[in-house]
Amino acid sequence: MRVLVVEDEDVLADAVAEWLRREAFAVDVAYDGDAAHERLAVNPYDVVVLDRDLPGVPGDELCRQISDRLPQTRVLMLTAAAAVRERVAGLALGADDYLVKPFAMVELAARVHALARRAVAKNPAVLQRAGIVLDPARRTAERGGRDLGLARKEFAVLAELLRADGAVVSAEQLLERAWDEHIDPFTNVVRVTVMKLRRKLGEPQPIETVAGVGYRIP
């Protein structure tokens, strides 16, 4: 799942991004509205964590654009204004949820997980296939009752393969969905991650390689 954090307080933005990465999200960061506008034009995001008060393109305008042009993208709006009328105004712009600063990171992460599930409503909250049970919100993954002990990127890749519901997922798609924009497109990190994931999943091996195409869990 891919998230864009848009926040002009760079320390807060980086802290939010790091927390969400620990939750196995792929996270990009924009420190002003102009940078966010550029990223939204080229990258697909499941959730945007959006500060309402931004330099450049205002947060309200970004929220309107996302609501109008990117209906599958969910918006969690952040603001320092706690008044009810401010929250109502934010939701009226198209925000899906609203969080007042200061906030607890654990609450923000829970809200992002909830919005991410809504962004892919066709998928159940808990993903199951080939004896694997994966819960993105609780960040648990097991097979045959055995905890898999997955690293963050292993968890993210397995989640994307399970969400595909038997379809093939290319290495390029996995890079786009499980890593952020800074990843080298020519890296072999997907192959290495899948190799480690296969070891932890054990036999019978659920991940198939479709030569020249990608990977799937049939």
Structure write-up:
It is a single chain. The chain is of the alpha/beta class. The protein is built from 8 helices and 11 strands. The chain has helices spanning 10-22, 33-42, 59-69, 84-92, 105-119, 152-163, 171-178, 189-201; strands at 2-6, 26-30, 47-51, 74-79, 97-100, 127-129, 132-135, 140-143, 146-147, 208-210, 214-216. The strands form 3 sheets. Strands 2-1-3-4-5 form a 5-stranded parallel β-sheet, with helices on both faces. A 4-stranded antiparallel β-sheet has the order 6-7-8-9, with helices on one face. Strands 10-11 form a two-stranded antiparallel sheet. Strand 10 (208-210) and strand 11 form a beta hairpin. Helix 6 packs across helix 8 (189-201). The radius of gyration is 18 Å and the shape is elongated. The chain starts with a strand and ends with a strand. The relative contact order is 0.12. The model has no long low-confidence stretch (mean pLDDT 87).
Provide the descriptors you would attach to this structure in a database record.
alpha/beta, 5-stranded parallel beta sheet, 42% helix, 8 helices, 4-stranded antiparallel beta sheet, 218 residues
User: What is the approximate shape?
Assistant: elongated
- Major sheet description: 5 strands, parallel
Q: Give the strand order of the largest sheet, numbering strands 1, 2, ... along the chain.
A: 2-1-3-4-5
Strand content: 15-25%
Kindly state the number of beta strands.
Answer: 11
Helix content: 40-55%
Radius of gyration: 18 Å
Distance between the termini: 21 Å
Uncertain ranges: none
Mean pLDDT: 87
